[in-house]
Design a protein that fits this description.
The chain has 33 helices and 17 strands. Residues about 500-515 have low confidence and may be disordered. With about 775 residues, it is of the alpha+beta class. About 40% of the residues are buried. α7 packs antiparallel against α8, α14 packs parallel to α17 (about 255-265) and α22 runs parallel beside α24. β16 and β17 (about 765-770) form a beta hairpin. Among the domains are: about 345-450, Leucine-rich Repeat Variant (Alpha Horseshoe), CATH 1.25.10.10; about 525-670, Immunoglobulin-like (Sandwich), CATH 2.60.40.1480; about 680-785, 2-Layer Sandwich (TATA-Binding Protein). Helix content is about 50%, strand content about 15%. The N and C termini lie far apart (about 90 Å). Keywords: Cytoplasm, Cytoplasmic vesicle, ER-Golgi transport, Golgi apparatus, Membrane, Protein transport, Repeat, Transport. This is Coatomer subunit gamma.
């Protein structure tokens, strides 16, 4: 009953105002002779004690930390961790008692003592490093304390990658007698940043032994960790392939799934067929969650061995016919779509046609119809897809019917012999009961009847390149201010091209819906629009990635983001004071010295820059008009500010200060800053749409470039444009290649580049540029030349 009273006191501590009156009773129990009550009394007393009363029980807490009874000592140590949040300075005085408790023979006392010591010293890297060295040399008796020691060492090494003495701690624990400690050490080594294959070898060897352990938990932990290693260092796990193949038949299907997905990452091309057969033998027995993991591993394998796409497509199509939930089916569809898009030889999408015949998921059906409309017209026999698509118009719900109408229009726009049939089908769709379906059918019918390639490219093939949320805001703003001028699409921010290179790591699928966060561009647009000097600059065209103007270790850490508008550029610089905690900076201003063609209009300083708190300043520069050479340039940057010394105790700055300046690295404005990537699904149609009015062509020699792949990557990076038609992938054993790039130049001008590359004693490049304005064409050729 008394222990129940302690629990009641702890729970009522936050809602009762008079709970403090039981302090004397709890203090008496805490120092009493009944050990069974002393531990709970300490925990209850610390729960109700505030910072002002902590000193009154400090003597009792110190005695309890070094108490011979392990439950009392542990209670005092754990309570000390909680009291740090209330009064860190008081608990810091208990460090000697915690040091003494850390040498205890009891495993839990030692574990809790190490935790207290770390939290007392975690803000002092040197003190933490000394503590690690001490316990690594003297050793610990608690396996839990060893695990915490390894995690502390790992965290210290991640914070300070160079010259840290922490790495020997997890490395030495690989020879511990406790399996828990060995696994923790191996896991810590594997998760270290920039860990080489040689440093991974001891950890992988330990995990390989765990793969043959009789304990399922150890086998699961080992294969799960090896799976993570295989993502970055597949060659390091190759030695474990035999052990992993033995786990494929493991009675625990979770272990078998992780083993097969690890083998898919590490296996050779010749082993793909055999692995697929082994997967098919048990895939029906595992949950949808693990089936998704298998599908994602197959997708990664297809990128690694594209010639095996036919085997994988057959396997995936069989999985598609099996029963399963939405996330599982979506993973398969996404995988098939990625294979179709990445492999020109795998254009046949008949598997997907069969799937949508009885697909109950609207999202998947519309996604497949979009793919059929995009890839179907380019297949050898496009007519065979028409029946499947039109069946969706007859049998499905409104959203699927609308997607099917759009897919039909794409077939008619790209295949002249199919156009009469498509027009008839669209006329039937005009009788649909849904407004969206009727509107789409009417619109596409009228566009196709014009039989103009430019119209087809604009309204059917390539669609809108603007941001839909941005267009919604612009239209709303337009309605608020009545004007006789028509709405200008160039006032709408562009939609950024999807980055296919950033593949997400394989994780188990979450069923929680994702919240739509505003894009980076939208955030910058709102921030800049709130500044009066930038209100009339128009829509934000593009924001660059942050560029460092100083080294991270210097006293000032400065980064710059270049915001491009139609006729202006805004330099936004964020500064952080690293190691001058006794000084305060005011009126921080970064001055730029532009070329003769650029004009600095205004500078907005940061009013104050306290230690370790970022400050932002802006510089507005007018861009030159119709000057192709001056579009790029170098800006010299100098930071000027007023320094005021601060009182070391109070942190209050002095009244008077002195002016100072700090020279920063030069800031480059490149051609890619003026261009926004846009995707053109049908480059040929877009090329014809732009026309040859401002077309220009030149030939260049890339003498220092040795391969076509290197030339393609360098051109894409330099121009900052979006590769189309998968032209960024160079086929094997080819001496020539065509690269197609699309973008929009600031001001809203479409910009297309066709680059023909030939390999012979370096790379020769013939560049053809088209735009609806002459300046973007001249800028591209001037920058390349």
């Amino acid at each position: 009953i008394e222990r129940m009273c302690y629990l009641t006191i702890k729970e009522m501590a936050t809602i009762s105002e008079d709970v403090i009156i039981v302090t004397s009773s709890l203090t008496k129990d805490m120092t009493g002779k009944e050990d069974v009550y002393r531990g709970p009394a300490i925990r209850a007393l610390c729960r109700i004690t505030d910072g002002t009363m902590l000193q009154a029980i400090e003597r009792y807490m110190k005695q309890a930390i070094v108490d011979k009874v392990s439950s009392v000592s542990s209670s005092a140590l754990v309570s000390s961790l909680h009291m740090m949040k209330i009064s860190y300075d008081v608990v810091k005085r208990w460090v000697n008692e915690a040091q003494e408790a850390a040498s205890s023979d009891n495993i839990m006392v030692q574990y809790h003592a190490l935790g207290v010591l770390y939290h007392l010293k975690k803000n002092d890297r040197l003190a933490v490093s000394k503590m690690l060295n001490k316990f690594t040399k003297s050793g610990l008796k608690s396996q839990f304390a060893y695990c915490m020691l390894i995690r502390i060492a790992s965290r210290l090494l991640k914070e300070n990658e160079e010259g840290s003495p922490a790495f020997p701690a997890p490395l030495s624990c690989l020879r511990n007698k406790h399996e828990m400690v060995i696994y923790e050490a191996a896991s810590a080594i594997i998760h270290l940043p920039n860990c080489t294959a040689r440093e991974l070898a001891p950890a992988v060897s330990v995990l390989q032994l765990f793969c043959s352990s009789p304990k399922p938990a150890l086998r699961y932990a080992a294969v799960r960790t090896l799976n993570k290693v295989a993502m970055k260092h597949p060659s390091a796990v190759t030695a474990c392939n035999l052990d992993l193949e033995n786990l494929i038949t493991d009675s625990n299907r979770s272990i078998a799934t992780l083993a097969i997905t690890t083998l898919l990452k590490t296996g050779s091309e010749s082993s793909v067929d055999r692995l697929m057969k082994q997967i098919s033998s048990f895939v029906s027995e595992i949950s949808d969650e693990f089936k998704v993991v298998v599908v994602q591993a197959i997708s990664a394998l297809c990128q690694k061995y594209p010639r095996k796409h036919s085997v994988m497509m057959t396997f995936l199509s069989n999985m598609l016919r099996d029963d399963g939930g939405f996330e599982y089916k979506r993973a398969i569809v996404d995988c098939i779509i990625s294979i179709v898009e990445e492999n020109p030889e795998s254009k046949e999408a008949a598997h997907l046609c069969e799937f949508i015949e009885d697909c109950e998921h609207t999202v998947l059906a519309t996604k497949i119809l979009h793919l059929l409309g995009k890839e179907g017209p380019r297949t050898p026999v496009p007519s065979k897809y028409i029946r499947f698509i039109f069946n969706r118009v007859v049998l499905e719900n409104e959203a699927v019917r609308a997607a099917a109408v759009s897919a039909l229009a794409k077939f008619g726009a790209q295949n002249e012999n199919l156009l009469p049939s498509i027009l008839v089908l669209l006329q039937r769709c005009m009788m649909d009961t849904d407004d969206e379906v009727r509107d789409r059918a009417t619109f596409y019918l009228n566009v196709l009847q014009q039989r103009q390639m430019a119209l087809n490219a604009t309204y059917i093939f390539n669609g809108l390149t603007v941001s839909v949320p941005g267009m919604e805001k612009a239209l709303h703003q337009y309605t608020l201010e009545p004007s006789e001028k028509p709405f200008d699409m160039k006032s709408v921010p562009l939609a950024t091209a999807p980055v296919f290179e950033q593949k997400a790591e394989i994780t188990l699928v979450s069923t929680k819906p994702e919240k739509l966060a505003p894009s980076r561009q939208d955030i910058f647009q709102e921030q800049l629009a709130a500044i009066p000097e930038f209100m009339n600059l128009g829509p934000l065209f593009k924001s660059s990635e942050p560029v460092q103007l100083t080294e991270a270790e210097t006293e000032y850490f400065v980064r710059c983001v270049k915001h491009m508008f139609t006729n202006h550029i805004v330099f936004q610089r964020k500064t952080l004071v690293n190691n001058m905690n006794k000084k305060d900076l005011e009126n921080k201003l970064i001055l730029v010295e532009p070329s003769e063609s650029h004009e600095v209009l205004c500078c907005i300083p940061a009013p104050s820059l306290p230690y370790n708190q970022p400050g932002v300043c802006y510089t507005l520069v007018r861009l030159p008009e119709d000057d192709s050479v001056a579009a790029t340039g170098t800006f010299s940057c100098t930071m000027r500010f007023t320094v005021r010394d601060c009182d070391p105790d109070t942190g209050v700055p002095a009244e008077e200060g002195y002016d100072d300046e700090y020279v920063l690295e030069d800031l480059e404005v490149t051609v890619s800053d003026h261009i926004q990537k846009v995707m053109k699904p049908n480059f040929a149609a877009a090329w014809e749409e732009v026309g040859d009015t401002f077309e220009k062509e030149e030939t260049f020699a890339l003498s220092s470039t040795k391969t076509l792949e290197e030339a393609v990557n360098n051109i894409i990076t330099f121009l900052g444009m979006q590769p189309c038609e998968r032209s960024d992938k160079v086929p094997e054993n080819k001496n020539s290649h065509s690269l197609y790039l699309a973008g929009v130049y600031r001001g809203g001008y479409d910009l297309l580049v066709r680059s023909r590359l030939a390999l012979a004693d370096g790379v020769t490049m013939q560049v053809t540029v088209r735009s609806k304005e002459g300046t973007p064409v001249d800028v591209i050729l001037a920058s390349v030349g």
